[in-house]
Amino acid sequence: MREHAHAGAQPPEDLLGQETIKGLVREAYRAVVGTTTGVAERLYDPEQLARLPRGAVEQALGVGNPVRAAGLQPGEVVLDLGCGGGIDTILAAHAVAPGGRSIGLDMLPEMLEVAARHAAEAGVANVEWMLGEMEAIPLPEASVDVVLSNGVINLSPRKSRAFAEIYRVLRPGGRMVVADIVVDEDLPPEILMSAAAWAG
Ligand SMILES: C[S@@+](CC[C@H](N)C(=O)[O-])C[C@H]1O[C@@H](n2cnc3c(N)ncnc32)[C@H](O)[C@@H]1O
Known about the structure:
Blueprint: H1 18-30, H2 40-43, H3 46-50, H4 54-58, H5 66-70, E1 77-81, H6 87-96, E2 101-106, H7 109-122, E3 127-131, E4 144-150, H8 159-169, E5 170-179, H9 189-192, H10 195-199
Parallel strand pairs: 1-2, 1-4, 2-3, 4-5
The structure holds S-adenosylmethionine.
C-alpha cells in the first residue's frame, strides 16, 4: 500500500487564525471589565432598567434588547451566549421565574465574576454562570428553551460552529433571539485584516 505523501504531516498551528482572533477578542473584553459604556439607556426600557443594579446597566456592551423580543415565559430555561456583565441573563431570570432559570455563558472568568456580583445585587437566585465558548457550549443537547445573544456572534471566528451548537442545545420547538451586527456584502481586506474590527 502506498502511503500518502503528506501522511503524518502536522498542519501549521492555527491555520485559519481562529485562536489569534479569539485572543484579540479576549484582550479587548478583558480591558473593558468594570467600565461604564453608556449603551443600556438607549437599548432598554425604563421598567427593565429599574430592575437592574447599576453595575449591570453600566457594563452593558450589547447592540439590542433580545429579552424584549424573546417572549420569555415562567418555567423556561434560557441560555445567554456571551453574557458579559449579565444584563440580559438577569432580565431573563426575572422573566422565567417562577420555575425557570437563566444561564450566562462567557469565555472570560472576569466577566462572569462581575455578572455574578450583579445578579447577587439584583437578588436573583435562578441564575447560573458558566465558563465556556459558544463554539463548544458545555451543555447537553436539547436542554434549553431559549438562546439569547447580544452583540456576541459577530465576534466568533467560526460562526457556523456557534450556530450548530445553538441548534444542538435547543429543545425541539426552542427559539433563538439574537441581536447583532451583520454585513451584507464582502468586506475589504483592510477591514478583514484589522484586529480592532474583529474584536470590536
Ligand atoms: C460585546 S460583549 C456583549 C456582552 C453582553 N451580551 C451584553 O449585551 O452586555 C461580548 C461578550 O462575549 C464574550 N465572548 C466573545 N467571544 C466569545 C466566545 N467565543 N464564547 C463565549 N463568549 C464570548 C466576551 O467575553 C464578552 O463578554
